[in-house]
Amino acid sequence: MQLNQEILVGDNSLSAEMIDNAYEIRTDNIISKTQPAVSDNSSILDSLLNDYKNQLAEKTALHAGYPYNLSFSYEKLSPFFQFAINNLGDPFVASNYKIDSRYFEQEALAFFAELYQMQDWWGYITTCGTEGNLYGLLLGRETYPDGILYASNDSHYSIPKAARFFKIPHVVVNSQPNGEMDYVDFLSRLDSSRPAIINLNVGTTLKGAVDDLEQILEMLERKRIKNFYIHCDGALGGMLVPYLAPGKINFNGPIHSLAISGHKFIGCPFPCGIVLTHKKLVDKLATNIEYIGSKDTTLGGSRNGHAPLFLWYAIQQRKHLFQLEAETCASKAADLRERLERVGIACLLNSYSSTAIRFS
Question: Which phi-psi region, left, alpha or beta, contains residue 42 (left: φ > 0; alpha: ψ -120 to 50)?
Fold first, then answer.
């Protein structure tokens, strides 16, 4: 039985009238050099932006298919958009650029570290789940330069991207029909002569499958591989599993890094995420940068200082509700599956998942 993996995405194109208006703005600025363009174009700009706002409102109201939380309210944070907030450098080492949000970044990260029962941790607010995956697998390569990356073929596209970027030998492991790693195939592909760098999915992109840490560890034991690094891609399920299956995956077990998206379960007006890892592993990447007065420990240099503020605010407002919200997501997914099956549409819904996907 195969799964239909098509995702319907709305038409995001601008209207012809909007394009014409935008073209008029450009030609007015070029041709009418003797006239002040700002006053002439202000009404056109206002109209264009208003049309765009209405388009966003319409598409937001009809949104489906992507697991984003679009129900959020950050009006109280709007005054902070007048400031150029830049968390340049390490989140825990102040830089020469003083307009930052490091305090809020540290507090937001502390929430995730506590959620995943982590001690002696380090992390930072990323641009998205992909950056978290890239960072985690880079640490894996730095920990075991001769390691091999193992990831199921249901893993996110950022995993093979990391393998290409960082020149890590990459072995694709078969998946089970539900999207979970095929552990027998994993065992057969393991090279016992080299360290293993493993991507463990905490909610695969299309099927919401969660790989089983215990079975992965069992396969490593059977191959007698002692040197391994496990990165957890929790971009999708990283905020569901701790509430729906407490203790299933956390840093009490032998995992080394974790990525979670901030704009999915929590919700944010711009993409963001977090990456967590053991502090001792980051020392392999750290470089003192004199002119910024901080350490270079992240993938980027300048970093969005608004994202930590927004995530911190959401956490403070709703952390006591996250358990209920996770249960509600799972309940609504189960209800959707039941409704579809009543009309003859068979669906897959994995445990700890908010994704119902149609069988074809």
Answer: alpha
